[in-house]
Amino acid sequence: MAKPYAAEMARLAETFAWADDVDIGALRRAVRTAGGMPLRAVGSGGSLTAAHALAQLHQYVTRQLGVVATPLDVTEPSAAPLANWLLSAGGSNVDILGAARRLANQEPRQLAILCGRSESPLSDLARRHPFVDLLLFPPPAGKDGFLATNSLLGFIAVLVRAYLLELGTAEEWEAVRVNIAPLLDAGSAQIENWALTTEHLWRRGTTIVLHDADSRIGAIDLESKFTEAAVGNLQIADYRNFAHGRHHWLAKRGDASAVLALYSPTGADLAERTLALLPPEIPIARLELPASPMATMLASLIAALQITGWAGRARGLDPGRPGVPEFGRKLYHLPLPRTAAPRIANLTPRQAAAIHRKAGASAAQLADAGDLARWQGALEAFRQRLLGPVFRAIALDYDGTLVDTRHRFDAVSPEVKSQLSRLLGAGVKLAIATGRGASVRRDLQAALPKSLWENVLIGYYNGAEIAALGEDNAPDGKDEPCDELAALALALRDQPELAGAAIQSDRKYQVTLEARQGLSESRLWDLAHEVLLTQGMRNVIVTRSSHSIDIVPEHVSKANVLAAIRSRIDDGALLAIGDRGRWPGNDYALLREPFALSVDEISVDPSTCWNLGQPGQRGLQVTLEYLDALEPCEGGVRFKADALL
Description:
Elements (H helix, E strand, L loop, with lengths): L4 H5 L2 H10 L3 H10 L4 E4 L3 H17 L3 E4 L13 E6 L5 H13 L3 E6 L5 H7 L5 E4 L13 H18 L2 H11 L8 H10 L7 E6 L4 H13 L4 E6 H8 L1 H6 L3 E7 L4 H8 L8 E5 L4 H22 L11 H7 L16 H11 L3 H6 L3 H16 L3 E7 L16 H12 L3 E5 L4 H10 L8 E5 L4 E4 L14 H12 L1 H6 E5 L4 E5 L5 H15 L4 E5 L4 E5 L4 H9 L6 E8 L15 E6 L18 H9 L1 E4 L2 E4 L6
Parallel strand pairs: 1-2, 1-3, 3-4, 4-5, 6-7, 6-8, 8-9, 10-11, 10-18, 11-12, 18-19
Antiparallel strand pairs: 12-13, 14-15, 15-17, 16-17, 20-21
């Protein structure tokens, strides 16, 4: 039996206190990733309100577009970089699972899943795709009853806290907390005033909820709850959209209607001017909410949760236990329509995914255009070429390839340690090409037996300095840029927007810029190039890594690392593996090799730099697939005959 609604409401203060204290480290990292691109928030039922809140929050804090979708809306992938966030308290309904499967196979720039249950089908699906950000936040009140209550407040509160602490300021979150805490006491003067202000509305069968931009979430949740629990007929509109025809309802059905007006202090003038024009016989209740946009959002949600209970009680029903008809249970379990692309004869799922990544169109679309045979031929030619040689050396990128970018300062995983040791034991020489410095040497020294170090080269700062793993005096970590970069480094520091929104690290042969405060990667790229053009710098190379922009002299390149390791193997074959093979990715030079594999972004060259990972996988998981497909042979390693099919 579902919980009584009043029992759930009694735990809201506990839920908010939990949201203010729970560890949000992983959530903040995911928010930082999302902060530089548009975001699509996906939810259904009660979680759809949380999706609306996330989209609004994303737009407010990052100034990037935030859109809302239901699982049925998740169809074709976006051509532009897009953060996709799925929200589900229980993680078991068929719709969110269907959307998660679709999105995982589309391999979007970011896929994050915010879930209230660690042991759920949705969480299990996320774990099968390690590139997914699985964000688990089981609220202390446990599973909601029929309507989303504590999970909804908990989800939105932790999201607001994460966005403000990561991309805003701690003071902004403190202001939200101070404004919201009093509203969670059911006996507070504010809550009692809300109850008295709204009680006359429930004598009318229809409630029209008017809202401003900041109180929209409360209106959305009221519409959801009144409909789902059959509390009453409820319509919502913002104050200006109400003027475009929706007011006509009151002209024809005003005797059965009432108006609930939600607004913040900044929206009070428009609200009052609108309400003053309504017929005097229409009952009106005004709820003025806190001034801060994020506090208004949460306050409007709390108002919606309370109002649902008051309206239900006035109309003789418990919104937490409305009863579910048998046809409703059957509706709930209907699956989403199948959207799987038609299978193409003689094309495995891995091959279809590889072609889609490379061509930017599905195999079915290419077949319809008469262009599939060309791409099949290019893929098969590359794979056959890959299966032929014995590889005596392997050059690998580090961040995004050997370590997950989200945890790039953690220790190398046991699986990577095992594979690297196995390859070195087979006589293969390894070269690590990284944009970082001594931290990579220390991590690899800790991961590999000292007896293997002599066969590992590291190209620091994108190939500026190359040294054996055992050379503890490498790299040169001096903070004074070389002559080619000195003037540029000063000019970048003097650029006003970069000074406040980017972290600049100067090394002898590399200047690195990392965005902060929600600055998008494209904006950072544009700002850096503006300085380059102003300074007339033509003797440098600018590339993007998985987390930064790197500027190096024109003689510095990861191709230097390839040359260094190639000199150690005479005429043996060399395999290159990286994650940013598309220009201006910092693995572009590394993955122009004839035998080059990407674990993520790829170039448009059909002759090399393919991503042959399983569908729905990228990054470290694909690296491990590639390395596991190599088997020892005389003189080095080679790909197994049935590898990567």
